[in-house]
Known about the structure:
By secondary structure, the protein is α/β, with parallel strands linked by helices.
Amino acid sequence: MIQTVATTPYPDQKPGTSGLRKKVRVFQQPHYAANFVQSVFDSLDGFAGQTLVVGGDGRYLNREVIQTMLRIAAANGFGRVLVGQGGILSTPAASHVIRKSGAFGGLILSASHNPGGPDEDFGIKYNIGNGGPAPEGVTAAIHARTLEISEYRTLDTPDIDLDQLGTQMLGEMTVEVIDPVADYADLMETLFDFDAIRALFAGGFTLSFDAMSAVTGPYATEILERRLGAPAGTVVNGTPLPDFGHHHPDPNLVHARDLYERLMAEEGPDFGAASDGDGDRNLIIGRHQYVTPSDSLAVLAANAHLAPGYARGLKGIARSMPTSGAADRVAQALGIPLYETPTGWKFFGNLLDAGMATICGEESAGTGSDHVREKDGLWAVLLWLNILAVRRQPVTEIMAEHWARYGRNYYARHDYEGIATERADALMAELRGALPTLPGRETAAGAVSTADDFSYTDPTDGSVSAHQGIRIGFADGSRVVFRLSGTGTQGATLRVYLERYVGADGELALETADALAPLIQAADALAGITRHTGMDEPSVIT
Ligand code: G16
């Protein structure tokens, strides 16, 4: 029996770059999750009798909110829900299931790389029928609806058994509990040369994959250990836990420190990788060689033809604006277009749908291709493994050869976390106001040559996204970018992206911190970071 429950709006349900993200305690307020789910459905048309995909990264509250979603979906007239067993679906796997099943859309429960647990973060995002994050028009409509909602529809029914594979009924809606891994693993077999990678492992190549007690554990174990024959123990922290075992599931050099140290050790593995809470980000480290996400995108693009799924070449490469220009040089050499988009995977979706780009990447450790409409952590690891299986060279050599051909973009991101929102806004406002006066200004990194606030016109539909980050360029091609994070849940995070290009005949083996020192000084002088934030140093450097 359908019930209509009276409710009042929560004014803070504005979906950011990756859906609605809040503390678990916020989501636990009465009707909070239900309001958001009903607001999503109220903003969509034409889903009666259609299929919805539901799954999450297994974090605290995952199962409870899935039960709420299923009831609201049934009461609103969806015909069928596909839900991952145990409530599990990585973000890229959910994207694939949406596409493969021809679903109307999907609800993914995750706060991505943010920590999980009763005092940590939770999130919900809506993906559309192409498998990708909802575009800005849809998220704006959802937000507008959350401000007006007065009731939601649900059912008074017992919980669905999420652990039992197969079909159950919820009112008139079918719920199919599906194997969360199988379809995704099959897709990977169509893209990569599994025989070559199997032979690489059989030859003694060693990999350590850190699943960070998050969602990729079951995917990595099935693909790397079962299908590709890597020895047991290749996947570490392989069981998804509601609090990620107190790990911060962000695969960077700070939060995946153990992995980094193992790879830097004398007798470490040949290759190391990690993924985040919901499985869409990746960290790549060769023995004695960290690979920045921006460089990883460039190397993957330059070598993608070595994998069967990309043997016919790439249509184009897309990168987010703060991502380094390393991929631009590869695109130029391949004679294919390079698209520079705002931060947020949704901007790639249109380019992929239009067949304009094949590979996309972001400095925030996201890389992916047109096989789904999300970034995909394990996909990036498998493409690297495919390249290593064909080239049979260590990562150090692959990187040295890459830089010797294309030059090197030294790169780092400095994050200032937990700044009072007013202070962060004041810093950005002051910098925006100063933009016209910056060109010509002398700094430790030389004179400023260009200064603007990035605005993007989508080449597929002409839509414009303004104020996407402040770019300051220098005469030698170096660059500093300032933007505020759209994914934090506490205060504001200022991200400062630093990049210096050295040509193929220049100094290619500097320490990154040394190469970037003048830019770091210039960034503080231009934006008054310490003055505004009171912080002398960034909280995280990646
Ligand atoms: C999300 C988006 C990414 C984007 C990132 C930016 O990542 O999906 O495309 O790069 O946010 O984060 P911020 O605004 O904090 O710099 P995820 O992995 O959190 O879904």
